[in-house]
Write a structure and sequence with these properties.
The complex is a heterotrimer of chains A (636), B (356) and C (292). Chain B is α+β, with helices and mostly antiparallel strands and 356 residues long. Helices cover 38% and strands 21% of the residues of chain B. In chain B, strand 7, helix 5 and strand 8 form a beta-alpha-beta unit. Chain C has two domains: 106 residues, Beta Barrel (Elongation Factor Tu (Ef-tu), domain 3), CATH 2.40.30; 129 residues, 3-Layer(aba) Sandwich (Rossmann fold), CATH 3.40.50. The chains are: A alpha/beta (636), B alpha+beta (356), C alpha/beta (292).
Chain lengths: 636, 356, 292
């Protein structure tokens, strides 16, 4: 027996993987209800999840294949469009780097896996990448080195039981609100919640302890915490663990010992004694959860290494409620990595698009839901661009062929959340235009190029991907439909029991600020975290909330402290001139916030011109995400 | 008041019979998640009158989360417009309402139908609607209807009211419509001792409420007094505001929250539809005006507004009862910790200076 | 189409016996569009359905909900006098819907619901001096009352207008102002923020005109509309001169979605601007408990 109107679903709007019910008659979605039994979301949803019905009702859908003719996109049949793609793609040489694949971190595992096959077997290319992947590769590399497999250690449900929770950097109540809510609940039940963040975020306000360090020193602080922990360890013989057997231990310890408390305080603004106090709590904790943001606004590699090392050093990582989780902002970022469509270091589609002399001539793109298209001009000059997406987006203007895709509730598919939880969303609404799911579309393109795959449905695809993807063995659609998914199994990786410390370097970060450019400008921190997100633009209430900031600050804003505002003699909403040390310039309104430290300034991601004109000229600033710091001057 | 005693079979027969001329809604348990929904009943056996309080309020049916209220097509060429209404009357039965949800419907009735203007959309859904309530035999986690005078049994507003007793369901008639339904059947009249039995059932249920809920009873009215007069420290609102993740959930699951948003959206074929969607005063954009003036920006001001709406005398005048019906759903869904019972606790803590 | 389902509790039904258009927008034709000041246009409207037109009676200070087909609905105050005046609205392009309105041509259709709101008191202020104080587009909601009061000149004492704008280009309703300035029974004082070439009138802010106009405080009411900064300084000036808080009247603007007291977007403290307002005395505004 099934209910008439309520169908279970996994929310597809961030990497938490919350459970939800959709209220639907099988043709339209009328509403959303929370799913109380879900182990992570436990009947809670954020503003995005509660408004999924608005997205799923949008009229801004792509409904049929289209082909560009005389500069205009015109409707086409699947047969015609698929034949065109197959024949055009054969004119390029994938092995020579002429074909690039831009995958989506929102696609299901089935779509990701078959896209990988299409790229590797049919197009013969390895030039690939996932939108928003930048930071996640670093997280994966660091975790793989430390724990032996590229994925989170432990489960998000550990937050509900752990003694000690460390949140490094991320404004998690905005980015992954339900995880933020779970942390808040943990704090209330008595867990010690510690936040490391240069600005006073909401989770910082809700924490037991907030270290408001100077920008650029999160990694240093994590290392200092490790040093203090080691100090207690050395004194306390009873609690002597055998982590000293792990590879990299002695180098790590030697590096930690070199930390000078004077230099630490000068660089971070935090006294070492304060960290020693904190280490006592950490030492007493039996179960420890560490969370950090991964993906576009993630941390740099040395900071992630500091985190994974600290986790190993605590010697609590075998506790069932300990975890180290790179929290993703997009639903299937982890799964897309697992499916093997991420870029390889030094050989990604992003690099090919950014290098003027690369061989790339054709691009196959899935669901690019960022409003900002990087390297737009280069893409526009390519010989052939294919774009597939459920929703209309600016990328259509660049495409020669466009394919529709079903929305996440219009087809069966699995998604892997930040903590490796693989969950299934069953089709609960019929796509009115009978569009093909991604895997079926790719299968047809492959067939047109002479490759027969033989999948009858998404479950078939899953059977094959489970056989070929480490950790997924033993999972199936049928089994995932019982309960609320399952974490993929790290023990499939041969090194999963061999833990290793990452090599670290102790560097006292010198702020790049100068008397001429006295402010450290950072990116991030906005009321709502969906940036230029194409999906949220198609809702009603979340879009209004997002635009709210633009109403108050139509040209964007730069957040500074009240003290700095007094010094600069400016008031809220006044326009100021912001000049960076490499000469880029913008005029922007001031937002005065008591949550910001003096000497620092924040701009949110979402202001388009700011990113394209002000940030992108900074080679690494955009990619470094939350960790990028740009010296600027602010003048009235 | 006429009273009857019906067997479980007779209840089932009644459901099947009503299905012939009404859309019948009632509590059902979703088999995989065990979550309860007050949903359209396909098969009369799916109705579960002993299921816990439904996870979403019954207002879902009378005031849906999203609905199309108007469709129009504007032809810019001929400068003409065609308009069509998109909501329609449908006879329905809400079978087995928990008293809190019934109280919620009464509050919405008074708000949507009893003020200066009548809301036509709500009226259309509400017309030809039969309300059959069901006494709670024991409280569910986080219930506190005893504090808000809306349970565990219903005393007004129903057409028929059910209470499960040892040898069947005691059925009370509460309206002309209920009267007509009873008259059309040959139901067994209840005996006087069965009414006493019902009272005992209700008393037992009240005894089963956790201390926190009953203890809060007096405090709810003291807090209402404070909120009405505005004597609450801004620190308390800030403490509440810091815990608000601005998801809107409290408003969506509240049986009496009635704020909505209206937006015109273009459809594929050049038509336009007017969507009415639920809204929440906890959202920053909620009170924003065109231009750049937002009279209610800080999050604590917005929280303040919601609790004023639930717990002030001036708002109660519109509902003829407190705006809160004690269902506790806001406590379930809040990712912070500011469900209404907790807010009462926080204000109570302020009044007592941190004690108790 | 215009029904209020028999409650008849609202001002319109009570005073005129005529119900407003409550639920479905009634189609109106745009007869004429005039550029008023930068970003503000005036749209002259008429109902193709003459039965509806006959029953559509407004009071000064009320507003309508106006649908721009394909874009959405917005609330706008009514500048025409209740008697013998063309039906029109004056709108500044500030958001998506109002920008769409500005793109329309004569002959295009709009949807109208209303009129809604309490309106300015009229009978209660008979025999008194009326001081209108407006800043910028704050003259729009006051125009109705001004024209109406002048149509009933004998009912009032002195009638004074103090009007200020940023520059001469930002003065609303200039043809009206010309007529008003020639009306001996109407004392008009117009100011712009800074001196400019060809301007021979006053310069400076509106609150400075209060002194200039020798505004009477006793037996007077003041209608004040304008941006918050102007509002506060003018109120301050009146209170200093001993004007009663009940005699200072203004209209509040809030985001509105329904106009009939249901959507709650316009809730201010314990009142709803759409049904309890938009006209409030300063004493009421002060006690609403929220920012203006």
């Amino acid at each position: 027996m099934q209910l008439m109107n309520y169908k279970t679903c996994v929310c597809n709007l961030c990497g938490t993987g919350c459970g939800q019910f959709l209220k639907t008659d099988g043709r339209q979605v009328f509403g959303v209800a929370p799913l109380i039994a879900h182990p992570v979301s436990k009947g809670k949803l954020c503003i995005r999840g509660w408004h999924a019905n608005e997205l799923l009702n949008t009229n801004e859908r792509i409904t049929q294949p289209m082909i560009r003719e005389n500069g205009q996109l015109r409707p086409a049949s699947y047969e015609e469009a698929i034949a065109l793609v197959a024949s055009r793609m054969q004119q390029f040489d994938g092995a020579k780097g002429e074909i690039g694949i831009l995958a989506s971190a929102r696609s299901s595992n089935e779509d990701g896996y078959t896209l990988g096959r299409l790229a590797h077997e049919v197009f013969g290319t390895r030039l690939q990448g996932i939108g928003a992947e930048a930071g996640h590769r670093k997280s994966m590399a660091s975790l793989e080195h430390a724990f032996g497999y590229p994925g989170a250690h432990g489960s998000l449900t550990s937050i509900d039981h752990a003694d000690y929770i460390l949140v490094v950097g991320t404004d998690i109540t905005r980015q992954n609100p339900i995880i933020g809510g779970n942390i808040h609940a943990a704090q209330r039940r008595g867990a010690r919640v510690v936040t490391l963040s240069s600005s006073r975020t909401q989770i910082a306000k809700l924490s037991t302890k907030h270290f408001q360090q100077k920008p650029g020193t999160k990694g240093l602080l994590v290392n200092a915490l490790a040093k203090a922990l080691l100090g207690i360890r050395t004194a306390n013989r009873e609690r002597k663990a055998n982590i000293d057997q792990m590879p990299g231990y002695s180098d790590y310890v030697a590096s930690l010992r070199s930390i000078s408390s004077v230099a630490l305080e000068r660089a971070s603004g935090i006294r070492y004694e304060e960290i020693e106090e904190e280490a006592k709590y950490l030492e007493q904790a039996k179960s420890i959860v560490i969370l950090f943001s991964s993906g576009i606004s993630g941390l740099d590699r040395p900071t992630i290494d500091a985190i994974t090392n600290l986790a190993l050093l605590t010697d609590r990582m075998d506790h069932e409620h300990s975890a180290v989780i790179p929290v993703a902002g997009i639903s299937n970022l982890q799964g897309s990595f697992d499916m093997g469509v991420s870029g390889e270091p030094g050989n990604s589609v992003f690099k090919a698009l950014a290098s003027p002399d690369s061989a790339i001539r054709a691009l196959f793109v899935i669901d690019h839901d960022d409003g900002i298209i990087r390297d737009r001009e280069r893409i526009a000059s390519l010989d052939f661009v294919v774009y597939s997406c459920a929703y209309k987006s600016a990328f259509m203007d660049l495409a020669h062929v466009v394919f529709p895709l079903p929305a996440f509730n219009e087809t069966d598919g699995t998604y892997t959340a930040s903590d490796r939880r693989v969950q299934i969303t069953r089709k609960n609404v019929d796509n009115p235009h009978k569009v093909l799911p991604g895997w079926a579309l790719f299968q047809k393109i492959a067939a047109a190029a002479g490759h027969q795959w033989g999948y009858a449905n998404a479950a078939d695809v899953f059977i094959e991907l489970a056989n070929n993807t480490p950790g997924y063995a033993g999972l199936s659609h049928q089994q995932l439909s019982q309960g609320f998914g399952q974490h993929w199994n790290p023990q499939a990786f041969p090194n999963s029991r061999r833990r290793k410390f990452n090599a670290i370097n102790i560097e006292y970060w010198e702020s790049p600020t100068t008397p001429e450019f006295p402010f450290a400008l950072m990116i991030g921190k906005a009321q709502h975290y969906w940036h230029q997100n194409n999906l949220m633009r198609k809702t009603i209430v979340p879009r209004r909330e997002y635009d709210q900031t633009l109403w108050l600050y139509p040209h964007g804003y730069i957040e500074i402290s009240p003290d700095d505002a007094t010094r600069l003699k400016v008031k809220d909403k006044w326009l100021v001139n912001v000049r960076s040390s490499i000469g880029t310039h913008m005029k922007i309104a001031v937002k005065i916030s008591p949550d910001v430290q003096s000497g620092t300034a924040y701009i949110p991601y979402f202001i388009k011109n700011m990113i394209s004109d002000f940030l992108l000229p900074y080679e690494n600033a955009y990619a470094a995400g939350e960790e990028s710091v740009i010296p600027i001057q602010i003048q009235e | 008041m006429s009273m009857y005693i019906l067997s479980s079979d007779e209840i089932s027969q009644l459901v099947t019979e009503l299905q012939a001329s009404y859309a019948v809604y009632g509590p059902q348990v979703e088999p995989q998640t065990r979550q309860v929904f007050f949903d359209l009943i396909n098969d009369a056996t799916a109705l579960d009158l002993e299921a816990p309080i439904p996870s979403m309020p019954v207002k879902e049916i009378l005031f849906p989360q999203m609905e199309r209220i108007l469709k129009y097509k504007y032809d810019a060429e001929t400068q003409s417009v065609e308009m069509a209404r998109q909501y329609f009357e449908q006879p329905k039965v809400l079978f087995g309402l928990r008293p809190c949800d019934l109280a919620g419907i009464q509050a919405l009735d008074r708000f949507f139908l009893g003020q200066e203007f009548v809301d036509d959309v709500y009226l259309t859904h509400r017309r030809q609607c039969l309300l059959i309530s069901n006494t709670c035999l024991h409280p569910f986690p986080q219930c506190f209807c005893v504090c808000t005078h809306s349970g565990p049994d219903a005393d007004e507003g129903f057409d028929l009211d059910l209470t499960k007793l040892a040898d069947g369901y005691l059925v009370k008639v509460g309206s002309e419509k209920g009267r007509a339904l009873a008259d059309a059947h040959n139901w067994t009249p209840a005996k006087p001792q069965q009414l006493s039995e019902q009272k005992a059932v209700v008393d037992k249920c009240i005894d089963l409420f956790p201390d926190m809920a009953t203890d809060n009873k007096a405090w709810v009215s003291r807090v209402m007094n404070r909120i009405t007069t505005g004597f609450i420290k801004s620190e308390t609102w800030e403490y509440i505001g810091d815990q608000c993740l601005e998801c809107g959930a409290c408003s969506f699951v509240c049986p009496t929250c009635s704020c909505f948003n209206i937006e015109d959206a273009q459809t594929e074929c050049g038509e336009c539809e007017r969507l009415r969607t639920r809204d929440s005063c906890s959202f920053e954009g909620y009170a924003r005006m065109a231009g750049d003036h937002n009279p209610r920006q800080p999050v604590e001001d917005r929280r303040n507004k919601r609790f004023f709406c639930k717990l002030s005398y001036s708002q109660s005048k519109k509902y003829l009862r407190p705006g809160c019906v004690g269902c506790g759903r806001c406590q379930w869904v809040c990712p912070g910790d500011i469900g209404l019972p907790n807010v009462v606790q926080y204000i109570r803590r302020e009044i007592t200076g941190g004690e108790a | 189409m215009s029904n209020c389902h028999g409650n008849h509790e609202h001002g319109n039904c009570k005073t005129t016996g005529l119900c407003p258009i409550v639920t479905f927008p009634e189609v109106v034709n745009i007869d004429e569009i005039r550029d008023e000041i930068p970003e503000v246009k005036t749209f002259y409207l008429s109902f193709p359905n003459k039965d509806v037109e006959r029953e559509f009676r407004i009071r000064s200070g009320q507003f309508i909900m106006c649908t721009v087909f394909g874009a959405g609905e917005f609330a706008v105050s009514l500048p025409p006098s209740p008697e013998n005046d063309r039906f029109h609205i004056s709108v500044r392009a500030v958001g998506k819907v109002t920008h769409a309105l500005h793109a329309l041509k004569p002959g295009d259709k709009l949807g109208v619901r209303g009129p809604f709101g309490n309106g300015f008191p009229f009978d209660e202020i008979k025999g008194k001096n009326i001081i209108y104080v407006a800043g910028g587009i704050g003259l729009i909601p006051l125009r109705s009352s001004i024209v109406h009061a002048l149509q009933h000149r004998e009912d009032f004492g002195r009638i004074i207008l103090l009007y200020g704008a940023r520059s001469s280009k930002d003065l609303m309703y200039q043809p009206d102002i010309k007529v008003w300035q020639e009306n001996a029974g109407f004392e008009t004082f117009i100011t712009i923020d800074r001196a400019e070439e060809g301007w021979h009138g006053e310069t400076g802010y509106v609150n400075q005109l209060i002194e200039k106009a020798k505004v009477p405080v006793d037996n007077s009411v003041a209608f004040v509309c304008g941006p918050p900064v102007m509002f506060n300084s003018v109120i301050g000036e009146f209170l200093k001169r001993g004007m009663s808080e009940d005699a200072i009247i203004s209209t509040l603007e809030r985001q509105m979605k329904c106009g009939i007291g249901k959507c709650q977007h316009c809730a201010v403290g314990r009142t709803l601007v759409c049904t309890d307002g938009p006209v409030y005395t300063y004493r009421q505004i002060k006690t609403l408990g929220e920012q203006i």
